[in-house]
UniProtKB/TrEMBL annotation, chain A:
UniProt source species: Promicromonospora umidemergens
InterPro entries per record: AAA+_ATPase (IPR003593), ABC_transporter-like_ATP-bd (IPR003439), ABC_transporter-like_CS (IPR017871), P-loop_NTPase (IPR027417)
Coiled coil (UniProt feature): 293-320
Name of the protein in its database record: ABC transporter ATP-binding protein
PANTHER family the UniProt entry points to: ABC TRANSPORTER, ATP-BINDING PROTEIN
Transmembrane stretches, start-end: none
GO molecular function: ATP binding
SMART domains: AAA (SM00382)
Similarity remark: Belongs to the ABC transporter superfamily.
Automatic annotation (TrEMBL), chain B:
Source taxonomy: Bacteria, Bacillati, Actinomycetota, Actinomycetes, Micrococcales
Bias type Low complexity, positions: 1-28
Keyword match RNA-binding: no
Domain of life: Bacteria
Annotated protein name in UniProt: ABC transporter permease subunit
Disordered: annotated span: 1-32
Keywords: Membrane, Transmembrane, Transmembrane helix
Transmembrane feature ranges: 57-78, 102-126, 166-190, 210-234, 241-261, 295-314
């Protein structure tokens, strides 16, 4: 897993030119009353990419995002957003950045439209004449046009989340930061968020999206940053991260238990899977594995190399997966490391 | 273990996309320029938000009603038993504005009713109104997560405090103005232009009454802004608007208690409610401005200190 270690994958993007990174941090650290929330984070968000920030609850995702946006002063470290230092250049950078952080924050006694108008009034890039149009367009884009006149108090969780998304899209942005954007959304709503992210990317907008839903990130992102306990455990292109896992050979066999025993006797890491065994072939050639199995008298019906899913990669990278039990398949046998 | 190939390919693809911006994308090469939302637009949005808030409207409604209730109640009592001494002013605060002789004869006049109501309400209900507004302005917004929206727009924290302070100022002015207007209208309806008499016994013209009431509203607004500045300082330090209201009212009550202790008379000039009695000077003819000026000066001191603390807290707090 050291292969995908921070920075290994991204220098390509940075070497291009000075502006190739939409966001970058160096040695970012945040300590809250003696508790280290984020420690030594070197984040790199290539311009034009959709970067998924992945990690269990409390891994420092939101704190990192809040520091990126200048909401929180870092204890140590440097931040660059759109090539300018933060939080010093906040008034130049933030107009080009849309953000949904820590859930939507609106006033219950105002309608969805009034809430957005209040936010739009503060947008430096909107002229007075453009305000109403921008609000309508944002509402339309997240599918809230029909509910715009209803009080925010009466909104469902998903509608609140959409309104938050609309506030990030009030102005054409260069970078959009979404913290858990699919929280509370039904499958249709989740699809819509994916569509919006894809649209943004097609327009050259960089997207940084945090999530604890693995499938979500796998489906929408080009790059991944994995945080665990305040530390970046991996970052790079999604494809690389998936490749970088230990290569696995799936052997379909009715004699699973004895096959695993035989392999372990030969110091080949293996674990039982439904209808067969999974064998780690980092240090062993597939031919050797099959030979070993056949010699041990296990029947081999089929053998194929497997590409690890993000789920596997993630489990590998974060030792403590307790937080994610809900997202992981409970039937999945324990990984043999 | 890492293969660099796919990374390079992915990177190139990303570059390609970024280099061909679509119509609604900002050209990536454009360097961000310093631009700010016009302050007038922020103020309009803030004031609109304040006066859409149900509890603001409720308390303002109460402030309009109280002088009416007082005027009608005193009027009925006077009709019933003219000789009986009556305690005037909402809540019947004794000694808040002169003694029974004046209030008995002209308690419902268009001069004493608004001024008496203002003096009485300045003790608790008007400070409560302002503290509520200040509590909602920062702590309340923060607890809803709505403050973040403006900070990310971005609105700098200095401008944010300016907008919030103006918002509280508007509430203070409107609240004080409503009390006096309501008292004035009620007085005219009940007594017409009768009883427009100063404490010194001179008759006052309607114009003389009006400018005195205007001074009273202005002075009350300054006094309330002192309260509001302290409330904003607390508001910038907490997420609980209730804490702001409790803190401000608690502080005022403690101040009033301390004012009752003669041994602490050296402390009294530093206590905000010490100014309240000077509003009575407006009933004299000619008006003695010494106390009012001293009270305004005291209020401005509180205002400066309160806003300084609020600014310090707001600029160092996490958004």
């Amino acid at each position: 897993m050291t292969a995908a270690r921070a920075g290994a994958a991204v220098p390509e993007a940075r070497n291009g030119s000075g502006t190739a990174l939409a966001a970058r941090t160096r040695g970012l650290r945040k300590v809250y009353r003696g508790t280290v929330a984020v420690d030594g984070v070197d984040l790199e968000v290539p311009e034009g990419a959709v970067v998924g920030m992945l990690g269990p609850n409390g891994s420092g995702k939101t704190t990192t995002i809040r520091m990126l946006l200048g909401l929180v002063e870092p204890t140590e470290g440097e931040i660059e957003l759109l090539g300018m230092p933060m939080p010093r250049s906040a008034d130049r950078v933030l107009p080009h950045v849309g953000a949904l952080v820590e859930g939507p924050g609106f006033h219950p006694f105002l309608s969805g439209r009034e809430n957005l108008q209040r936010l739009a009034a503060a947008e430096p890039l909107l002229s007075g004449r453009e305000l109403d149009g921008a609000v309508s367009a944002a509402l339309e884009r997240v599918g809230l046009a029909d509910a715009a006149r209803r009080k925010y108090r009466a909104y469902s969780l998903g509608m609140k989340q959409r309104l938050g998304l609309a506030s990030a899209l009030l102005v054409p942005r260069r970078l959009v930061v979404l913290d858990e954007p699919t929280n509370g959304l039904d499958p249709a709503g989740t699809q819509e968020v994916r569509r919006i992210i894809a649209e943004l990317q097609a327009n050259g907008v960089t997207v940084l999206v945090s999530s604890h839903l693995l499938a979500e990130v796998e489906a929408t992102c080009t790059h991944v940053v994995v945080l665990n306990q305040g530390v970046v455990v991996a970052q790079g292109a999604l494809d690389d991260l998936l490749e970088s896992g230990s290569p696995t050979l799936f052997v379909s066999t009715p004699d699973g238990a004895s096959a695993v025993d035989a392999l372990r006797d030969h110091r080949i890491p293996a674990r039982l899977a439904p209808d067969g065994v999974r064998v780690d072939i980092t240090t062993t050639a597939p031919a050797t594995v099959i030979e070993t199995l056949v010699r041990a008298g296990a029947r081999v019906d089929e053998a194929r190399r497997e590409r690890a899913g993000l789920e596997d990669a993630f489990a590998r990278l974060t030792h403590d997966v307790g937080e994610l039990v809900g997202e992981l398949d409970p039937d999945e046998p324990e990984l043999v490391r | 273990m890492t293969t660099q190939g796919p990374v390079a390919a992915r990177g190139a693809a990303v570059q390609g996309r970024a280099a061909a911006p679509d119509a609604d994308a900002v050209p990536p090469e454009a360097s961000p320029v310093r631009r700010r939302a016009p302050i007038g637009r922020l103020l309009r949005a803030e004031v609109r938000w304040i006066f859409r808030r149900p509890r603001t409207l409720a308390v303002l409604g109460l402030l309009v009603l109280l002088p009416v209730i007082t005027g009608v109640a005193v009027d009925l009592t006077l009709d019933g038993a003219t000789a009986a001494p009556v305690d005037a002013g909402p809540g019947g605060a004794p000694g808040a504005g002169g003694g029974p002789p004046i209030f008995v004869t002209m308690a419902t006049s268009a001069f004493v009713l608004p001024l008496g109501s203002l003096m009485t309400l300045l003790m608790l209900l008007l400070p409560l109104t302002v503290a509520m507004a200040a509590g909602d302005a920062l702590a309340g917004e923060q607890s809803h997560g709505a403050l973040r929206g403006w900070l990310l727009a971005p609105v700098s924290r200095g401008r944010l405090l300016l907008v919030k302070t103006v918002g509280v100022l508007v509430v203070a002015l409107v609240a004080a103005g409503l009390v006096v207007t309501s008292g004035l209208v009620t007085g005219f309806l009940l007594a017409g232009t009768d009883g427009l008499v100063s404490m010194s016994g001179t008759e006052l013209s309607v114009g003389g009454v009006l400018w005195r009431l205007a001074v009273a509203v202005a002075w009350a607004t300054i006094y309330l802004m002192a309260v509001g500045a302290v409330a904003l300082a607390i508001s910038a330090s907490t997420e609980h608007p209730m804490l702001v209201v409790v803190g401000v009212l608690g502080g005022l009550i403690v101040s009033v208690v301390l004012m009752q202790i003669p041994a602490l008379d050296w402390l009294h000039p530093y206590l905000l409610p010490s100014s309240l009695t000077s509003l009575v000077d407006l009933i004299r003819d000619p008006v003695s401005f010494d106390g009012l000026v001293e009270g305004a000066f005291r209020a401005v001191c509180y205002l400066v200190i309160g806003l300084s603390v609020a600014y310090a807290r707001l600029t160092t707090r996490d958004g």
